[in-house]
Amino acid sequence: MVMQGRELDGADIGLIRGLLDEYPEWCRSRLSEELCRRWDWRNAQGRLKDMAARTLLLKLERAGHILLPLRRGPSPNGQRNRLMPVVDHSTDPISGALRDLQPLSVHIVAPGSADQRLFNTLLANYHYLGHRNTVGENIRYLVRDCLDRPVACLLFGAAAWKCAQRDAFIGWEPAARERKLQWLTNNTRFLIPPWVMIPHLASHVLGIVSRRISADWQGKYGHPVQALETFVDRERFKGTCYRAANWLRLGETRGRTRNDREHCIRAAVKDVYIYPLVANFRRGLCSPSCSETEGRAG
């Protein structure tokens, strides 16, 4: 079987079962770290793929192959979300024409920085989905205008595990998707604060970010991304800024969530959008290897 882009056989399952039997006192994180070391499972920058290993273990347990030790406490991520500090910020109206704000500056939000605290505050208070810590590969952008006022926040993280319209558009079979999912990233949050009322700002920001994100991903994680995706809640938004920025609408979701294994959880229907970053993105996302030198999309 293939899980988290890794092929597993009977020996791998046996190794996990053996560790669980030999070290019953280990917590789940200790087990995932040890697996990464045994398999030498690392990302392009040499870091252990601990979160991928944890997800793999959960999937194996759900499939009935192993039984993990009980959780020893609440999620650390959830605890950090509850303790998220609020940063003072101006809500004075910003209006006028786009040219009045330029040049815009786009900053990658560094962990632990003042920008991160401001970024978290803006999303937590003004985005309808709120904000929580993101696991796995991700990049946060904070956009400021010429007067250093924050005018946009964008968060890119892990792509959806499955999406019928997207997978058909790319030409992904399950094995190729599992192998190449990290070459696609999801714009999970996009916020223009409610006091910023500038026509065309959102599509302009999307254009700026799309031209640099692959290089930024390469610098942070050692590999580029080949395409961007997002899901737009149809009951709230029309996706105008994505269409204006030349994103492609592929269709709509079926109103299910990633946890809907029994086909009984209903969620908002969302429009599926994708933005290829290179001209031959299908070849890159379906082939055994990707190259950051592929030509840019026109």
Element layout with pairings:
Blueprint: E1 2-3, E2 6-7, H1 10-22, H2 28-39, H3 50-62, H4 76-82, E3 94-95, E4 105-108, H5 114-126, E5 139-144, E6 150-158, H6 164-170, H7 174-180, E7 184-191, E8 196-197, H8 201-221, E9 227-233, H9 240-244, E10 248-252, E11 270-276, H10 281-286
Parallel strand pairs: 3-8, 7-9
Antiparallel strand pairs: 1-2, 4-5, 5-6, 6-7, 9-11, 10-11
Overall description:
- By secondary structure, the protein is of the alpha+beta class.
- It folds into two domains: 2-62, no CATH class; 91-286, Gcn5-related N-acetyltransferase (GNAT) (Aminopeptidase, 3-Layer(aba) Sandwich).
- Helix content is 35%, strand content 18%.
- The chain has ten helices and eleven strands.
- The chain has helices at residues 10-22, 28-39, 50-62, 76-82, 114-126, 164-170, 174-180, 201-221, 240-244, 281-286, and strands at 2-3, 6-7, 94-95, 105-108, 139-144, 150-158, 184-191, 196-197, 227-233, 248-252, 270-276.
- The strands form three sheets. A seven-stranded mixed beta sheet has the order 4-5-6-7-9-11-10, sandwiched between helices.
- Residues 290-298 have low confidence and may be disordered.
